[in-house]
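Q: I have 280 residues here and want to know how they pack in 3D. Can you give me a structure?
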Amino acid sequence: MATGYGLVEGPVWHSELGLLYSDVLNGGVFRISKNGDVSQQVPKRRGIGGMALHADGGLVMGGKDIVAADIDGTNMGILLAGADTKAGIGFNDLTTDASGRIYVGDLGFRVFGGDEPKPGYLHLIDLDGRERVISDGIMLTNGLGFSPDGKRLYHSDARADLVRVYDVFPDGSVSDWVPFATLESGETPDGLAVAMDGSVWVALAHGGAVAVYEPDGQLRQRVPVPLPMVTSVCFGGDDLKDVYIVSGSRGGPRENCGSVFVTRSSVAGLPLPPAKVKRN
């Protein structure tokens, strides 16, 4: 559907604009409109591993800091600074709950810098902008998503080759995690999305597929993808049955072959609630 990127991440569906997604390595947020036209939405910004819409019409983006901006990237303000976390490096994927709070994992080490792996933390940004650490020990934080009833939070740990699941309490905090799905060595769990029937769709970085799990963690099916570095997945389209799958270039035939693919699902995805965290 679209190609020529270094590392595509953070896909999010906008009901009017279409699909928004980032290129982590080369920078920028891009858009595929409903009629298939590709354009740049936000210039230059690199390292965006996750995005969400904001209730005021703007966009929340990850990277060195968690920021909120207008939909074109202007009027940008920091919601949570990477320098204010223990590792001080930055953030990867993120999601929102039904109340509009933001859940985001930080990076304990520079993934592309050859650092020794160190665990990071899961953060909750409340509606008033205050931050809490709600879990720890994540070796490489990736996809996050809630069950349809909002009572469970799924969380990919790419270096542990598993997807965690937490129980979620009314104040937004979470229980100790337990394994939801454990992957075979080399099939790294990356971004994820949840469908209306409670199935959890997990991008398999280096695995060339999206794994679809039942709510009890049993594997339902695998959706093959033409490139091995499958980084994330989201539902879109007017009926939320279009499945957008994004990839990076690693293992592909050439540099900057990261791509966006689309297929159809028999089940609709859960709409991602907009963030309602106070903007600075």
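Q: Anything worth noting?
A: The domain at 2-264 is CATH 2.120.10.30 (Neuraminidase). The chain has a mean pLDDT of 95.
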